[in-house]
Amino acid sequence: VGDTAGAAGKGMQRLGHDSAPFGAFVEAAPDAVVIIDPEGRIALVNAQTERMFGFSREELLGQPVERLLPERFRGAHAGHRANYGSDARTRPMGAGLALYGLRKSGQEFPVDISLSPLPTEGGVLFTAAVRDITERKRLEAARDEFIANAAHELRTPLATLAGLGEILAERLHEMSPEQVTRALEALRRQGERANALVANLLDLSQLDGGRVRFTFEAVDVAAAAQRAVDAAPPPGGSTVKVDIPEGLRVRVDGVRFEQVLTNLLTNAYRYGGPEIRIEGSADDGFVRLSVVDNGSGVPAPFVPRLFDVFARGSNAESHGGSGIGLALCRRLVEAFGGQIAYQNGEPGARFTMVLRAVTA
Amino acid sequence: VSPTVLVVDDEADLLFTVGLGLELDGYRILKASSGEEALEVVAAEPPDAIVLDLRLPGIDGWEVLRRLADTGVFPGTPVVLLSAQVDTATAARAVDLGVHAHLAKPFSTSELSGILQRLVPV
């Protein structure tokens, strides 16, 4: 550290500053700091510049600053630099524009840049503080995709709600009593579905933010499974059989545990076969709890990403997704200290959690 | 005789909703909840128009269109496409294939009625 700080300090001496504290500060800055002379040549760089751009100090000092830019921006940049020189004040560079740096390897990367004039005895220099925003851009892209997927997922219940709302408002008198009953059932079901989706979204965001408080207690597994079935009963034509021995208990947050079970049930109702079982067993100090259906199972390509948020195939229009229900299940089960996994059943889908048993 | 419309959607409540609106318009409704089922229905009883969701389990809406084209049903029989989003790529592909109309969910049932009235009037 002493050497590199010294190197910056030497540069600072050339700039006519009281070198030691200022030089060390610049050298240790988290941003790449590049100081440019009035001709646009690099007069000083700090250690972060070397790390970020992959050039050594020696390779950069005295070079045109455009060396750090992708080629297509170099001509325009030289012009902007001249303009900035005539009206120099501290400001972000390229307001509203996407800015890119160029590493020695030839790789481009997105950056934020702040500019400020630096008056010295030898004239006005310019300081550019460069921040690599690759990670921020990646997070923004992930967030945008998340929002797009959430909107997509909400559209399905909304299509029914909006459609039936319109029909009921305008054509109620033309409808048979059976049609009205069926329409009201569908409204309630899809309203609950939209509601559950929003609740899951909020839970997931709170789990990510570490803002969920769990209340751990010993929970009877068979009773919890029955409450989950009561809360999320099977749709017409489907059945749920609970097959769990008495006395199995796990230490979990009771409300969240039921939420995991209702999510797994809802998943089975939506994507699985009509015969669903919840099976529990004791297994050497652990409780094994499965939700099984007799459908066609999860297609092999989706299995690896099944518990990801909005897991779905590459063609979102073509394949249904599990949305966020399974992602939430995994986060919760892991928060309970357990694990959840998917197996292709015999046939159908089998989701199994393993949780430490509570012994009386 | 009322024209027959085949509605294809894997979401039972949406299938009911679309079917209900068109039934009240005076159409006779056939329903299918997968692409495979849709092809079976078309083979057994050719409809006068098809309302087809793009996103289906098993073979998707595009594949249904392709097979309907192979058997000479489409584009002679008009198809209205439903999809969760109408982005430019999806819309362009639909136009290229000769799809007669394309609606994004959630859509207005009266808009769907209007489109079908133009294609196959009751």
Please explain how this structure is put together.
The complex is a heterodimer of chains A (360) and B (122). With 360 residues, chain A is of the alpha+beta class. In chain A, 44% of the residues lie in helices and 23% in strands. Chain A has helices at 2-15, 19-27, 47-53, 57-60, 71-86, 134-171, 177-208, 221-231, 254-271, 325-335, and strands at residues 32-36, 42-45, 91-92, 99-102, 108-120, 123-132, 216-220, 239-243, 249-253, 275-283, 286-293, 339-344, 349-356. In chain A, the strands form three sheets. In chain A, strands 1, 2, 3, 4, 5 and 6 form a six-stranded antiparallel sheet that branches. Chain A has a five-stranded mixed sheet with strand order 8-10-11-13-12. In chain A, helix 6 (134-171) packs antiparallel against helix 7 (177-208) and helix 9 runs antiparallel to helix 10. The longest helix of chain A has 38 residues, at 134-171. The radius of gyration of chain A is 30 Å and the shape is elongated. Mean pLDDT of chain A is 84; it is low at 1-11 and 312-322. Chain B has a five-stranded parallel sheet, with helices on both faces. Chain B has five helices and five strands; from the N terminus they run E-H-E-H-E-H-E-H-E-H. With 122 residues, chain B is an alpha/beta fold. Chain B has helices spanning 12-25, 35-44, 61-70, 88-97, 109-119; strands at 4-8, 28-32, 49-53, 79-83, 101-104. The mean pLDDT of chain B is 91. The termini of chain B are close together. Chain B is globular, with a radius of gyration of 13 Å. In chain B, helix 1 packs across helix 5 and helix 2 (35-44) runs parallel beside helix 3 (61-70). At the A-B interface, helix 6 and helix 7 of A face helix 1 of B.
